[in-house]
Amino acid sequence: RRCGAGTIRRRQVARCVPPTAREMAAIDAMPDVMALRSSMGEAFSTTLSMIVVSELGDKTFFIAALLAMRHDRRAVLLGSAGALVLMTALSVALGVALPALLPREYTHWAAVALFVYFGGKLVSEAVGMFRKGEGLGPSEELNEVEQSLKEGGKDDDAKVGRSFRSIAVQALTLTFLAEWGDRSQLSTIALAAAKDPIGVMLGGSLGHCCCTTLAVLGGKYLATNISERVVVGAGGVLFLLFAMHGVIAGTSG
Question: CB 3.0-4.6 Å disulfide test: which of 17, 64, 150, 164 passes with 80?
């Protein structure tokens, strides 16, 4: 159909006008946008699942659960979740800095090696628990955290009117120190170095907030009713799956 005829409707003329340079650039960029969304979504889902499996029954989970039994739950939730989101941001920043210091290929295979190490270690611990008939009840970390909180808070009973701020600060400090150098922190650094950092940040933050909320609302009940060896085994299998995906996808994944 020829352009320029006076009887052609406006919308028909619009179809005959060639696309502008901006429109062509947008069309050319569509594959990159789709790839970015896929990469971000993969990083988000991977980090979210890793955090949920790692943090259930972890020391920070017990800290939030036990503090919520003694103090204002809102303050505990704010302090604990704030500490974990802050730790996630620091871990992602470290992960983003690594590729600037080392080639992406090195950081990718380092992340795979880290997942293999953690996965193998957790699976080995779970198998040992099954053989010895251990791990049917709660984790030993629950008793450790409970005892440390009792020793560190002997004077808390006298402070009936503790402020919201002081409780939140206590939860933030205890959680931040317990999370530093933890398995989930190292895994977050590795994921941020190998995958989309925004997806890792969002997935890690959401995962921590979900686990902390669960701990504050009913963590003590869950901690005493979830089998430790099942949680440890599931975490190990998940880490090994991450490692397998990294080997199959290669540095382009």
Answer: 64
